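Teaching assistant's notes for section 4

Start the section by putting this record on the projector. Ask students to predict, before seeing the second block, whether MFS transporter will look compact or extended. Collect guesses on the board.
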Amino acid sequence: MKPTKIRYQVLFLIFVNVVINYMDRSNLAVAASEIDKEFQFTPVQLGLIFSAFSWTYLAFQIPGGILVNRFSPRILYAFSLIAWSLATVMQGFAKGFATLFGLRMATGVFEAPAFPINNRVVSNWFPDNERASAIAVYTSGQFLGLAFLMPVLSSIQLEVGWKGLFVVTGLIGIIWGIVWYIFYRDPHQHKAVNNAELQHIESGGGLLDKQQAAKRSAFRWADLKAVLSYRKLWGIYLGQFAVNATTWFFLTWFPKYLVDYRGLDFIKSGYWASVPYLAAFIGILCSGFLSDYLVKKGTSPAKARKWPIIIGLLISAFIVGANYVNTPGLIIFFMSLSFFGIGFASITWIFVSTLAPKHLINLTGGVFNFIGQLAGIIVPIVIGVLASGGSFAPALVFVAVLGVVGACSYIFLVGNVERIKIAGDE
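Reveal the predicted structure now:
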């Protein structure tokens, strides 16, 4: 019997989830200049608002990882999508710093389980040798979606204002949350999947929920201690911080950088801003499919999985080149080169399912995202402080240095690519 291909339909659903996820993270960046004009925020205040999402997103990563281990992705993701989208709608009615800061924090709370759910779904639906490609496809949603959405979001704001922008983007998420609940099912509950596809997935190391079902138990502090005790895992945690550092620059300060520090008008900045996202999209697809191709051809995981991440993080440091050019085309060239590098490095989630103890994959994913999302708090605030003097050059140097640090963490800390085995694993 020929295997069905239902896993690719599931991958499409996750892809759209990620597009909406990042749309609701980045709509503030599009609206920032207009919000700034209305409320007269300082750069430091604006940096704090940019970081507000990550304060709670960070705080709820480990609780989110626990929830992902306890509840069905169908139910938890639908709830998460609808709840963060309602918070997004309410941002359109913000009256000042406090309410906008609080609503961004609420958005972070409800988005927290999203990427651990993505990792759980892909680990269940895809065998090991297809997983990097699957992760690359759904992760590319943040880049491809924003590449096309930046001009669209700019146009929406031009028509209905910054308040209407939040209402429109929030309503889209509410509708999609209902769509997810209607169509998503786990592998053994999906009526359209056949036994041949299930066997293909399981024989390749997928269906991890089935493997762990008998062993799933309540959260233990010893489990958290375990996933914080290994150098390999700290290597990927620090690497994720570096990847997110550059990503959060693009999700927060980048449009304002183009308009207020480089003098581009608002509509042109929307089109220019889309180019680096396209570069990142190309980068992650190249990385994911190249990595899986190398594994299938017998290349060691250390080379096939690690080196795209290391090379990508080093390329991301070229963002500093924008400090030495003045024409829009060259500025965007260095920004695009940097974001291509981040795209090339963004298969990092493969190491959660590859290195983590089998019964702690979801918890490891929560810690991985928790430490990575520290960048969402630290980077926007530090950039606001560094840009307070009127020059954005120190901020770009800061982002570039973090890219080099991330590459070093994969070179010197991760070491051999092999699963950590502890008590509780088979």
